[in-house]
Amino acid sequence: MQxxxxxxxxxxxxxxxxCVLDGVGGLPQNGKTELETANTPNMDALxxxxxxxxxxxxxxxxxxxxxxxxxxxxGYDPLEYEIGRGVLxxxxxxxxxxxxxxAIRGNFATVKYEGDTPIVTDRRAGRIPTEENIRIVSKITExxxxxxxVKVNMTSGMEHRSAIIFTFPEPIVEGGDxxxxxxxxxxxxxxxxxxxxxxxxxxxxxxxxxxIDKVSEIIRDExxxxxxxxxxxxxxxxxxxxxxxxxxxxACIATYPMYRGVAKLVGMEVLEVEDYSIKAEIDxxxxxxxxxxxxxxxxxKTDSYGEDGNFDAKVGVIEEFDSFVPDILExxxxxxxxxxxHSTPASMKAHSWxxxxxxxxxxxxxxxGAQGFGEADCLKGELGTFRAVDLMTLVLAHxxxxxxxxx
Length: 407
What we know:
The protein is an alpha/beta fold. It has 2 domains: 2-81 and 240-398, Alkaline Phosphatase, subunit A, CATH 3.40.720; 89-234, Alpha-Beta Plaits, CATH 3.30.70. Helix content is 33%, strand content 20%. An 8-stranded mixed sheet has the order 10-9-11-1-12-13-2-14, sandwiched between helices. α5 (85-92) packs across α9, α10 packs parallel to α12 (311-330) and α11 (301-307) packs antiparallel against α12 (311-330). It is globular.
């Protein structure tokens, strides 16, 4: 589809603000979802005068990871481009990757030991403070510089997250990153030993396993973060940039490394934000609004509270974002999009396969069907249900950036 879009692109000076409330979709509790429970007069008004619908991050019934879900939103089919989360985390932390590098997302976790067998009791180590993360990573890096001639670079992320890069003497062969995650995805289970999907990947996995064993010895006596789970083994892929694919001078406003990483992967300029608040992100949008024509604006805590099962806190973040919508509208963007990358119902404490609400507000919309911004209203909206990979085509069309197709 990107090749078709390239032929239809036309330049203009329209501005697009693309807001992603991470994991915004939910399931009803007491008859309403988190989004429907929230008091959102500003988004409701946008929905009433805009076009609403729901998107499928990957396909019917498939629960997406955040990386795959964002690729879909950005118009890169996640069924075609399978990109490991390690690359996104590393890029988001400002790390550089070469063909010799394997990037991995690390999650500190809490385990209890039954004999020598670790059992996961908290996959996120209580979301330890970032300062604590930095201390523990420093403790690890002081003692581990390389494994079997493979250089190791571990960098702290936010809360329980980190990025680990293994630099091999030679470029990693195709398929050498096909290693299964060690995260069991549930408490009460043992971490999974690194296993490769082929002989080349198994050689890499053996190095990873030695690293995990050494880390386990170093942090075993930590109160919360006493184990390291590893996810998203990957090498750096090559994707067309937003400028090449969509003719857009795109910028990213996000505070968490993974999302900054996926934006950098598709060629967006990652803007600096003063702190982790939505207000700081809004200030960044205002500061740089004249410098770009597309802004990816990411809000993380909707997803975090969904994963924690905290329905009320997720509602609170949605309401907080809504209070800043007038600040966005004061900038007079030509197109404003509000959606999520996936659903994270608080009742499930996890990502889910449920369709994600979306609204597009621009001058050329029919504005029929929606009385507010919520799952039930979006189900009746004019956009219907569509795959997320088709969203950028709709956004470009509403920004008058696509010419007629065919004779």
